[in-house]
Every structure is written in structure tokens, then in C-alpha cells.
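In full, the data:

***
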Amino acid sequence: MRNPDTTTVAPDVLQSIARLTALEVPGVYAMLAHGAGRRSDQGVRVQIEGNRVEMDLFLILESGVNLRQVGHEVQAAVTRAIDEMLGMQPGRINIHIEDIYYPNS
């Protein structure tokens, strides 16, 4: 029987929060979904152990931005969202820069 004071959060919710948070960071163009042929991970892989959340985010950044700086800003924003919105302990937030978007000129 489940404790009536327990709140559970589905992994899909964690993926959505991380994805939307990352997309708000200036310099992030899109997220790259992995796993063709199966349910999309929306560019975020989540691993939960107890109250600790670890993530891998797969980003497409805009051209002309400092890749390292944008990566750090995404890590900070997602870490803050996990802590403030969910009250969970953020673990490793790994950033994978998969591509650079160059607009047609």
C-alpha cells in the first residue's frame, strides 16, 4: 500500500520540464530526439535513483554562440528547475551538442 503523503512524478514529466527549460536558454535552437522507431525521448534521457535525477540532453545550438557557455547555462537552468519545481536532487546533467544550426542566408 502506498503512503498517502507520497507524490510520484512520471519520467515523461521530467523530460518535458528539462526540454522546455533547455529550449528557453538563448542559443539553443532545438533538441535532438534519439531512438528512431520507438517512443521519442524528446532529446532528454532521464535516470532516477531514489530522489536523485540524472539527465542527458541532446542539443542543437545556434551558430555563433559560445558552445561551452550555452551548455553551462542549460545545465544551471535544468538543475534549478529540478530542484525548485520538483524538490528532487539534481545529479549529473550531461550536455551533448549534436549539431549547429546555420540559417539559410
